[in-house]
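User: Show me a protein chain along with its predicted structure.
Assistant: Here is one chain, sequence first, then structure tokens.
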Amino acid sequence: MTSSISSTPKLSLRNVRKSFGTNTVLDGIDLDVAEGEVITLIGASGSGKSTLLRCANLLEPLDDGEIFFDGVDIAEPGLDPDPIRRRIGMVFQSFNLFPHMSVTKNVAIGPRKVLGTDKATATTAAVEMLTRLGLADRADAYPDQLSGGQQQRVAIARSLAMNPEVMLLDEITSALDPELVGEVLDVVRGLKADGMTMLFATHEMAFCREISDRVCFLHQGRILEHGPPEQIFGNPQETRTREFLQRVTDAGRF
């Protein structure tokens, strides 16, 4: 069942700025993500996509600006970030699975250690999540026995096991062989169908056009252009956007 998109922002970034030394990575980002909305971030490497996601999950402290989650400024200095991170799931380019644990234990460990869920309940929920993502037959396997696509699906299952309200996805197919990309993108399609709120950095332009409610093109740490996918891909207004899309088309990524 597909959820409708709420008009009330679930997540809001206001004038978010972040620098590393003299390198300004985010230069005044303003972005609202409504509940149930899927927003994709596109742009060249170094444009600020990953840093934006890491700031949204409080993995990077802001230099300036505000981040509101359900109307509360979660970037307020001194605020404990852990309760917020439990509500905002994040999946990275690298899988970061525990190699000494089975797939089921990798998925169950978050609810057990962070949420205090008992072992039996967490294990049952982990198996159900793995079944949902087509990995029931790999539940007892270890990460080094899985393909890259399977490992990334386990990483997504691990994040979903925490019952997040928002998912942040950072180039989750970039480390995969091309033939494995589809199985991971199918999981994202399923999350959209379930109404999950998502902020998704990707270089997969065809998938971006398919899955997005809105697309944001980042350039030099700013959202240079944003809009529905049919506008961004069909009639981009900014020269830089057109140049970027031409480059990825020439590179065969569209």
